[in-house]
């Protein structure tokens, strides 16, 4: 069970998606969703890296921002 959604609900959702988009579009949709997730993960990793570098380089400025 995923967040209150059971197997019957997932099957119904998948059938509706299949009807709306058709079998030919499903690989394209899946690929697009996969690329979107990959880009999101990459962006969050880059932000985390930038934050870590900022903390190492400018600890005084960060403390000033936190205290103000």
Automatic annotation (TrEMBL):
GO terms for molecular function: protein transmembrane transporter activity. Residues 48-68 are annotated as: Disordered. It is found in: Cell membrane. The keyword Metal-binding does not apply. GO terms for biological process: protein transport by the Tat complex. Keywords: Cell membrane, Membrane, Protein transport, Translocation, Transmembrane, Transmembrane helix, Transport. One of its GO terms (cellular component) is TAT protein transport complex. Pfam families: TatA_B_E. It comes from the Bacteria. InterPro entries: TatA/B/E, TatA/E. The chain crosses the membrane at residues 6-26. It is a single-pass membrane protein. Its main location: membrane. Belongs to the TatA/E family. Forms a complex with TatC. Part of the twin-arginine translocation (Tat) system that transports large folded proteins containing a characteristic twin-arginine motif in their signal peptide across membranes. TatA could form the protein-conducting channel of the Tat system. This is Sec-independent protein translocase protein TatA. It comes from Desulfamplus magnetovallimortis.
């Amino acid at each position: 069970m995923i967040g209150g959604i059971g197997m019957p609900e997932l099957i119904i959702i998948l059938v509706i998606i299949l009807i709306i988009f058709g079998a030919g579009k499903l690989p394209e949709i899946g690929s697009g969703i996969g690329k979107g997730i990959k880009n999101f993960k990459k962006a969050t990793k880059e932000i985390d890296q930038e934050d870590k570098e900022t903390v190492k380089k400018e600890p005084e400025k960060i403390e000033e921002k936190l205290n103000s």
